[in-house]
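Posting this for the archive.
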Amino acid sequence: MPTFTAPDGTVLAHHSLGDRGEPLVVLPGGPMLASSYLGDLGGLAAHRRLALLDLRGTGDSAVPADPATYRCDRQVDDVEALRAYLGLERIDLLGHSAGASLAMLYAARYPARVRRMALITAIPRALGMAATPEERLAAARLREGEPWFATAFPAFQKWLGGGDFDDAVLPFFYGRWDETAAAHAAADDGDTEEAAEIYLSEGAWDPPATRAALATLTAPVLVYAGELDGGPRPELARRAAEVFLDAEFVVQPGAGHYPWLDDGPAFARRVAAFFEGEAG
């Protein structure tokens, strides 16, 4: 397991999967989940060497001395330190979910260091866009025919109204609720609730500045949504894509928030083609 040192001295780890081409830097979501939940991204590691970063305080990375450094914008230089450690002038960058906001902040601060960037099922908080409860409920209602819906939907409504999270709502995050999805949802990624709150805390975002910086980014961007995902719904992802000079917008049919679990081969082929510079 390779490690490197962040500018503040925190020792960070990344996990390498695959052996084809230069590393594709992968930033996990959660926020603040260890990268293990990503697996090999539905077989993407057969197309590209993946460098999956464990964000500070998660997985095999050390806990920082200052918890305030969990804030998303404070972790941008961790990504830059990984780029330097890998010895790359420019990187291909993939961010999933909350990790995509970190990817966007990195691209805004270091635009010349980004070759291509993929934003996978990302609520674009860094752009000042949020997934509303109404949007999430509209997506949830698409699942009315599922056998678990009658139990899950009231729990989902309660959670969106400010209630405690209930595991009954987990099927809404997956395009197909089966044994694979249930095992993925049950995986123990450690207690990162405090770090997640700091990641999203006040001061992390400056949407006007980020949007202005990304509006001049010349690197191609892939904005990838799941048809059944509520955070973001495809329309929100499409609006995020409009911020960029050179963006492709893709919706994976039947997919939820983890599209590589719903159709791994389709996900891997499409994302690999993007990074290879092939048209969709």
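The first helix runs from residue 76 to 86. The chain has one domain: 3-132+191-275.
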